[in-house]
Amino acid sequence: MSVQPAEAATEVAFPPGFVWGAATAAFQIEGSTTVDGRSPSVWDTFCRQPGAVVNGDTGEPAADHYRRYGEDVELMRDLGLGAYRFSTAWPRIRPDAGEPDSRGLDFYDRLVDRLLAAGIAPWATLYHWDLPQTLEDDGGWANRDTAYRFAEYAETIVSRLGDRVVSWTTLNEPWCAAILGYAQGIHAPGRTDPKAAVAAVHHLLLGHGLAMDVIRRHAPGSKAGLTLNLFPVVPADPGSAADLEAVRRIDGLQNRLFLDPVLRGAYPEDLVEDLAPFGLADHVRAGDLGVISAPLDLLGVNYYRGYQVTGTPREGTEPGGPAWIGAETVAFVTDDGLPRTESGWQVQPDGLTDILLRVHREYPAIPLYITENGAAYPDHEHGDGQVDDHDRVAFLDSHLRAAHAAILGGVDLRGYFYWSLLDNFEWAEGYAKRFGIVHVDYETQRRTPKQSARWYSQVINHNGLG
Ligand code: IFM
Questions:
Q1: In whole angstroms, what is the distance from residue 92 CA to residue 89 CA?
Q2: Where exactly are the structural domains of the chain?
Q3: What pTM did the predictor assign?
Q4: Residue 107 C-alpha to ligand 1 middle, in angstroms?
Q5: Given a cut of 60, is residue 289 above it in pLDDT?
Q6: Which residues pair with 83 in a beta bridge?
Q7: Is 130 in the pocket of ligand 1 (CB under 6 A)?
Q8: Helix or strand or coil: residue 61?
Q9: What percentage of the chain has pLDDT greater than the value 70?
Q10: What H or E segment, with its residue span, contains residue 22?
């Protein structure tokens, strides 16, 4: 299938200076998990638990990026990416959360320099879920001390790269780290303890605030913020009080639990009440919310799907991702009939417009970036250098139009990062799900840009699409 050229006179033109990028994360692409002093992370441990990760996959070989980063930067240059969002691995920088290791630091130093030499802006994320196992052994994010250790690690890496990294993200998707990791047990560290999850929410946010201070002190020239995965949540029946109540609770747990303390300096009152049995207020000390609400330069929004929820289980409903914290808070996700990706997630571009408009309307003004958006589809490379991923092209096209609609609606949206540059380790799904615009053959480590990569490259080139 040929790639349709984006027309010179674009129908959908993004603002001048719009940032076009792609994103990855350390554990998902680097491999080399036991070299240069790197210590085990919670994900290394979790992968060894039988049944935790499909096929018994592990962080090896991933996309072998630790050794092939030079080739990968060349690929990015060929695609015309303006920015690359990657994460730094805490267990490489401070193995066992102990003293800094210069070999880990040197790797990111080389990566950043290579990006800059290729004209690509480095965007670094400090935490994309690879907590050093030693810290988990001491309670992990349920332990307040982890927030201070995170600030220590941040100081090491920010003071090394702060003169060159353009933008820092403290945390990626703290909802996943806390809720999937400590309540639902489907991400590392695999705990199923709602109280620990609620403690983790607060300590992750505290770590974010402490790291913001580190970035301000050690990288005064760079931008800094936080990335949240936000979900539009709508009622199955807008006339049903039970469904509206389910929306309130689920929107609270997915979105407001993070947006409000960071952007408004307070946890929402209804959630403090909902979470009283799990002790949210017990963890909040004087001054914490001031630290957590330190002013940001930008908010990263990761968007994949929305939820249509109901408070009344019936045929065709299933307890969904939001049903995480015990029987009293279960909501049920209904089948809204939308097409789905290979992950089973609804393809719902309008939800992206809605969630961006919502942040714009309801929270203090802040520049927004889509720091992740993407889809898994069953891609195949047949040895002829072609991967026809037209589903992903359609996904990208519709979501970029949705992002543009948000801009027309007044949203200060300044950039878009596709998830992901490379096929990679998709957490509990292992290597079975491919999100990349570049295909990775895990046997040979051969990279093959998919049709979507060529399509995206044209969009970048035209700063828009026809
Ligand atoms: O692969 C993940 C990424 O690590 C965080 N956001 C969602 C992606 C797709 O599941």
A1: 5
A2: 12-232+245-298+340-465
A3: 0.96
A4: 23
A5: yes
A6: 21, 121
A7: no
A8: coil
A9: 93
A10: strand 19-23
